[in-house]
Specification:
alpha+beta, Glutaredoxin, four-stranded mixed beta sheet
Length: 282
Amino acid sequence: MVDYELKDIRKDLVEPSNEVPVVIDFWAPWCGPCKTLGPLIEKLAAKAAGKWKLVKINVDDPKNQPIAQQFQIRSIPAVRMLFQGQILGSFEGALPEAQLKQWLKENLPESEDDNNDEEDEISIDDLLAEGKRELALEVAKKIYSDDQKSDTNKIQLALLLLPGDLSTAGQLFSALSEPGKYEIEKECIKTLESLKQLLDGDRTLEKDGSADAIKKKYVDASSKLFSQDFDGAAETFIEVLMADRTLDDDGARKACISLFKLLGEKHPVTLKYRRRFSMALY
């Protein structure tokens, strides 16, 4: 796991900033927006391939307060970009990922590798938006194999391994340093494990009071999910949800949430069925 926290001002901040821009994230454990911004900026730092360096500074730590004062930090989260003794850019608050990428693009110095970096910036989110999960998985594997093993990258890889490789996804989740931040992902894995047990015959719906036809449709939707017919799985789970929410302890709702989570918010199937899912709930 990559540790971005400041340990030595000279080695972690001053010396590196003479070679590459250093993005400094001033944060604190009690700060809610910091918890939103932190994983996003860590994810981008992991994919930066040395173009810039991330340093996180906990302003609650007494030894860090002088440097926070030096950078005139009045509120957090606060981000500064330092390069060769100059501040190239700054912002306060938690930016969404798209705006964060734009801020980096506008403030990072141009280099000969910029064209190649733009190609690399066709990232996992972009690939998922095009429905290219297999390519996204290969990118995630490469990032992880490059020793960029942050919690963000572990979760990213785990979700892309689903639904096929539940075992490895579970191992990645077990290796998280702060699993409490990823309760939704944890429930996603638990739901898929339960559906796999149903398909493998390790559990049944025989004692469930729902109609047999609905049970059959639920099993069919689960089969479609694991065969990666995501469109068919989403449609069938929503049909079950509309017919009987009690089946398998609200299983169709949990399955839809898990499906959207492993596909990502920008995947075409998620965009197609998210509204129908929400309408089915009410």
